[in-house]
Amino acid sequence: MKINAIVTGSTGMVGKSVLIECLESEHVASVLIINRESLNIQHPKLKEIIHKDFSNISSIREQLEGYNACFYCMGVSALGMSEDDYFRITYSMTEEFATTLHELNPDMVFNYVSGTGTDSSERGGTMWARVKGKTENMVLQLGFKDAYAFRPGAILPEKGVKSKTGWYNLMYTVTKPLFPVFKKMDSVIQSPQIGQAMINSVLYPQQLKILENRDIRKLANQS
Predict the structure, then answer these.
(1) pTM score, two decimals?
(2) Which mean pLDDT values do the consecutive 10-residue runs of the chain (223 residues) have?
(3) Total domains, the chain
(4) 3-class DSSP state for residue 82?
């Protein structure tokens, strides 16, 4: 089976890691990335669409047809944001994108990157966790051929990938000597494993639909 994947959020650490694994994988035939600004990467498998407004994707709708996987890695930190703004970016934009893809490609596998601590009940006291939980539930219930919520926790960046958050990169630099120890911990995942797991979610359907770090690591090693 060959995978034709859409990847969003490829300017961020998780999305960039997923993109790298897709470009390196023999199982992935083509990759479409959609960003607000260009990544300036050239690759035979790669096509890029520059699109500024993810709240309205009608102008690029026709270019989204014919794909059998979407790895939705786009997201923002809730730090300093109102609930309304965070909801608009996290839930509403994802709903617009996912609903359009379901109309065009109902046999698609849709993977949504959430985060550890997400609240599936949608009723908890932490704002970001409630909104992420609502978004997860929407994606999982939309009716795709298959769908997963990825909840990575601590991530060790590899293959030159960096976070867009400056203090994260500083933390990674300071703690780099401890990486060999971190790699042995269930609560930590290496960035390439996220992309490998997403690819394998298309190749090897899973019963478990909400994947924490240990589940992502297990799926990444499946063959």
Answers:
(1) 0.90
(2) 96 94 98 94 96 93 97 92 95 97 98 96 95 98 98 83 53 53 66 96 98 95 87
(3) 1
(4) coil
